[in-house]
Design goal:
Layout: H1 2-22, E1 30-36, H2 39-55, E2 59-66, H3 68-77, E3 82-86, H4 87-94, H5 103-118, E4 120-122, E5 132-136, H6 138-144, H7 149-155, E6 160-163, H8 165-169, H9 174-181, E7 187-190, H10 195-201, E8 207-211, H11 216-220, E9 223-224, E10 237-242, H12 243-248, H13 250-257, H14 265-276, H15 282-292
Parallel strand pairs: 1-2, 1-3, 6-7, 6-8
Antiparallel strand pairs: 3-10, 4-10, 5-8, 5-9
């Protein structure tokens, strides 16, 4: 009888230990950092990973190469705990707004509605604005006297546009841009990442999607046109974290807040240039920046 009682107690103790260890899943000791499928996001994802590895006792798992909507779904499901996203993407793509707002309004709406609708906290901006932009070769700008999107609209029917799948289909992308500017391209090609710059260099496309912090704009000496009707909302980089993760790991939020206003447009463009053009490792670039900024030792 005593042996049976001891056995039952042992089983209960083991069960309690297992339940304690499983509460919250891997999130007890592990934080999952997510990133999208292009250079800047890889740098930022590594930046978060290195900061958390160096300044907390958490184990970091890094998941990247995700499209925006895939990353957003991973945040909602709990497959990802934290990432860097952009206010314009949150406002236009996740929250489906299309009306023009100021940078502060876009940020405030993003903070409020992401919290209420998705239990995700949008934290303080990193300081730079990586908005979408349209770029052309210098000779194209000179030939057609292109300075603004309105200038481009007058001759766009003679030109092929090259951009990523997302901008060709998203609410804050080409479909509504064409409506705003009464713009029609001769053809619209889905061209990803660095291949966009190769395509415009070879004149396979005459207009390309770019981000204002792309290092490749420097490499290819492209002319960025002015969004004179302010179609694209501000895309300030912001950390986004699950509320349950923030509650469980306040030290993570403390680390993320250290990135507030830590990066300028010029600095982000230079970091992208180091990876895209100089072919440096994204994690090494991220680590060097963090050290120079005094964010890790």
């Amino acid at each position: 009888m005593k042996k049976t009682i001891i056995t039952v107690l042992t089983i209960m103790l083991l069960a309690a230990m297992l339940l304690s260890g499983c509460a919250g899943g891997s999130g007890d000791k592990t934080i999952v950092v997510g990133a999208k499928d292009y250079t800047e996001q890889d740098i930022l994802g590594n930046m978060l990973s290195v900061m958390l590895e160096e300044n907390t006792d958490l184990t970091v798992e890094y998941k990247h190469e995700m499209a925006s909507n895939v990353l957003f779904a991973a945040l909602q499901s709990g497959d990802v705990d934290v990432c860097i996203d952009y206010t314009g993407t949150i406002y236009g793509n996740y929250l489906s707004y299309s009306d023009i707002k100021t940078a502060d309004e876009v940020y405030d709406i993003s903070v409020k509605e992401m919290s209420e609708k998705y239990q995700l906290d949008v934290l303080k901006s990193l300081g730079y604005n990586n908005t979408y932009c349209l770029a052309v070769r210098p000779e194209t700008a000179e030939q057609y006297n292109l300075k603004t999107y309105s200038d481009l609209a007058k001759v766009s029917s003679d030109m092929v546009f090259g951009g990523g799948f997302e901008i060709l289909n998203r609410n804050d992308g080409i479909p509504n841009l064409k409506k705003t500017y009464n713009m029609t391209f001769k053809e619209e090609l889905a061209v990803e990442s660095v291949l966009r710059y190769e395509a415009i260099q070879k004149n396979e496309t005459q207009v390309t999607e770019a981000f204002s912090t792309d290092g490749m704009l420097l490499q290819y000496n492209l002319v960025v046109l002015e969004d004179d009707l302010n179609f694209f909302p501000p895309y300030h980089a912001v950390p986004v974290i699950r509320q349950d993760t923030a509650k469980q790991h306040p030290d993570v939020v403390k680390e993320l807040d250290k990135l507030a206003n830590a990066i300028t447009d010029e600095q982000m463009r230079e970091l992208n240039y180091q990876v895209d053009v100089e072919k440096k490792n994204p994690r090494e670039v991220a680590t060097a920046f963090l050290k120079s900024a005094g964010l890790i030792k």
